[in-house]
Amino acid sequence: MTMAWLTDYDKYLFHEGRNTRSYTMLGAHLATAGGVAGAWFAVWAPRARAVRVIGSFNNWDGSGHAMVKARDCGVWALFVSGAAAGDLYKYEIVTGSGEVLHKADPYAFAAEVRPNTASKLVSLEGYCWQDDAWREAKAKKSPYNQPMNIYEVDLGSWKRGSDRQKLSYRELALELPQYAASMGYTHIELLPVAEHPFDGSWGYQATGYYAVTSRYGEPEDFMYFVDCCHQQGIGVILDWVPGHFCKDAHGLACFDGTTLYEYSDWRRENRGWGTANFDLSRPEVVSFLISNALFWLEVYHIDGLRIDAVANMLYLNYGRDQGDWEPNCQGGTENLEAVSFLQQLNEAVFANYPAALVIAEDSTAWPLVTQPTYLGGLGFNFKWNMGWMNDMLRYMALDPLHRQHHHNLVTFSFMYAFSENFVLPLSHDEVVHGKKSLLDKMPGDYWQKFANLRAFYAYMMAHPGKKLLFMGGEFGQFIEWNYQDSLDWHLLDYEMHSKLLDYVKALNHFYLEHPALWQNEQDWQGFSWIDCHNSEQSVLVFKRQGKEAGEFIIAVLNFTPVVRQEFRLGVPAARHYVEVFNSDRPVYGGSGQENPGELIPETVTWHGQPNSLLITLPPLAAVYLKPVGASCPEATGGDLEDTGVVAD
User: Fold this and answer.
1) What is the pLDDT of residue 107?
2) Of 566, 615, 613, 619, nearest to 592 (Cα)?
């Protein structure tokens, strides 16, 4: 037997933590050897006494299929003649103590449907992609100056069939991409689709990092789903979990009878989640994970990865009591191995896929998360703004009577809004475990709940940063998300839920069509306050600026149920204005307090501006204004480059 495909260079890179295609070297691959069809199997198990391949092709008896250990490599390999696509297999590992383990392949491309646990022999070649136009267009655009409006989805509970069964990848492909596109989303973000044994983990505790979950079909079916998304102009982002993995017996835990993928120090376990943290000091584990990230981008044409639980990776003391962790070699709390891994990961991704998205879910104030590694940053290109999310959900849950005393919650995010490239997330984590749905978090009666939510969404859309909304939020799911069932699509039979869906669709498309809301999000050039001090009335006024001088939107937010007639508003340009969006329109379920026609400024200084308007400010609502036409002769002052912040 020869292992010619296991080149010395590949093995060297693997042990250096720099093999970014280790899935071509390890795992199971259909092949022909000496004119005989079969499959090559290769597995990293350096401390095993013996390894055998067992499967449906040998009646699960590995006595005739003992693997051979490559010299000084820790990799065992074997060609099995007659093994074919669709065959099931595992590795029978004899540990140093003589214990026999039956393990799934860490590099398997497919697996059995749970609760069964065997790996499945498949080919990932042969699918005819139809997304060349999408990929070419994406490569020419910078994600920073493009709209990004993400629809977060759990595939198993977005929608169910008539028999309440999960839809397949191909069934989802017929509905979900078209729905997302029609609603004005630019991307779909999927909760993890790597193979996992327990539905209740939502995919965040995996066993098969290279195997797209068999719950919804085969690998080619998932390729078809991604392809359909791209053909609808929708990018696909995957939640990816390189920090920890579940301890199920057939998985990565104690893979060769020793702590191979995980840390050997019990203090490095993830006891809060009952999982094992990856040992990021081990080069072979780094090769495994970085190869996996590139695998999804290369093989499945995924557009980006949202890295889960970054804080758990970065801090040795994260979620731990004193004495349950050991400081690093410099005496600090930072996990230096994780820092190095994340930097190496991002360098590898962007070296191969410059247009990719790599988004950090980090709830801490770790600096320079979205700065390049050569400047000392972690190298992500976006980060979830968890501070904004927590502040705003707390603020919106308040009775409007008390919001005036917590005005800082709605303004504080602008103190750091440009310190990173942010995504504003309203994710699945905020609508589970007794936190209530977004609609049910809102205070007030039935009408006020919807009005509050519409105002919140409009504030989010005008706030600098990319956007993310979890499924169901677009039509007002009233109960918490339940992964075991479909969203309550029947709510669309009720007027207010149907109108909320229409509202979110209109708001999303307004965002896409107005560059002022997304062109300049990296610094203060794209944002300026007009009034941030009006805590007494719980009113905010600010300007979003596009790249063209006259391309701007004024957002006015009223977070109380009081209608404010003849509300005076300072404006930065002596031009006529029109109300281009109003969350209080009756078509959206509002009370109909609108500003029809053109609004003509007066030469009355207000909010630090030389001109001002009188408008009707609807209750629990947002109004967007836009300048039209040439300069107004009745007013003076012209465009102001820097409006400053001045109270009434």
Assistant:
1) 98
2) 619
Answer yes or no: is pLDDT of 197 > 70. Answer: yes
Please report the pLDDT score of residue 635 as a whole number.
Answer: 52
Specify whether the CB–CB gap between 355 and 143 falls below 8 A.
Answer: yes
Which pLDDT score, from 0 to 100, does residue 630 have? 59
Report the pLDDT averaged over residues 94-120: 97
Q: Is 93 exposed, middle or buried (0-12, 13-18, 19+ CB in 10 A)?
A: buried
- The first and second tokens of residue 68, run together, are 């051979």
Residue type, 442: M
Token pair listed for 83: 């093994």
Q: Compute the half-sphere exposure of residue 317: CA atoms within 13 Å on the CB side of its CA.
A: 11
- Per-residue pLDDT tens over the stretch 293-344: 999 999 999 999 999 999 999 999 988 888 789 999 999 999 999 999 999 9
At CA 61, angle to CA 58 and CA 63, rounded to 5?
105
Active site residue 308: yes
Which of 60, 250, 148 lies closest to 467 in space, CA to CA? 148
Cβ contacts of 166-175, under 8 Å, gap ≥ 24: 166/215, 166/216, 167/216, 168/216, 168/217, 168/221, 169/216, 169/217, 169/221, 169/222, 169/224, 169/225, 170/217, 170/221, 170/224, 170/225, 172/216, 172/225, 173/224, 173/225, 173/227, 173/228, 173/229, 174/228
376 token code pair: 């000392």
In the three-class reduction of DSSP (H, G, I as helix; E, B as strand; rest coil), residue 412 is classed as: helix
Please, are residues 207 and 248 in contact by the beta-carbon 8 Å criterion? yes
Alpha helices in 467-567 (DSSP H): 495-513
d(CA 584, CA 278): 50
Count CB atoms within 10 A of the CB of residue 575.
22
**Given 361, 362, 531, 579, the catalytic residue:** 361
pLDDT at 218: 98
Residue identified by tokens 């699945």 is 428
pLDDT digits (tens, 9 = 90+) for 618-639: 999 999 999 997 565 555 444 4
pLDDT at 4 (0 to 100): 53
pLDDT tens for 573-605 read 889 999 999 999 999 999 999 999 999 999 999
Nearest CA among 606, 611, 617, 605 for reference residue 633? 611
Whether the predicted pLDDT of 648 surpasses 70: no
Q: Is 361 in the active site? A: yes
pLDDT tens digits, one per residue of 412-454: 999 999 999 999 999 999 999 999 999 999 999 999 999 999 9
Residues 6+ apart with CB under 8 A from 72: none
Q: Which two tokens stand for residue 6?
A: 């296991």
**Can you say how many angstroms the Cα of residue 121 is from the centroid of all Cα atoms in its chain?**
30
The rounded Cα 208 to chain-centroid distance in angstroms is 20
Helix 446-462 and helix 386-397, axial crossing angle in degrees, nearest 10: 150
Do the Cβ atoms of 528 and 641 come closer than 8 Å?
A: no
Say whether pTM exceeds 0.90.
yes
Looking at 10, 218, 279, 308, which residue is catalytic? 308
Find all residues with CB under 8 Å of 25, minimum gap 6, and list them. Answer: 5, 6, 10, 11, 14, 19, 42, 75
DSSP 8: H
Take residue 303 and report the two structure tokens written for it. 């557009």
Report the distance separating Cα 466 and Cα 425, nearest Å. Answer: 9
- Single-letter amino acid, residue 41: F
Phi, psi of 134 (to 5 degrees): -60, -50
The residue type of 414 is F
**From CA 89, how far away is CA 58, in angstroms rounded?**
9
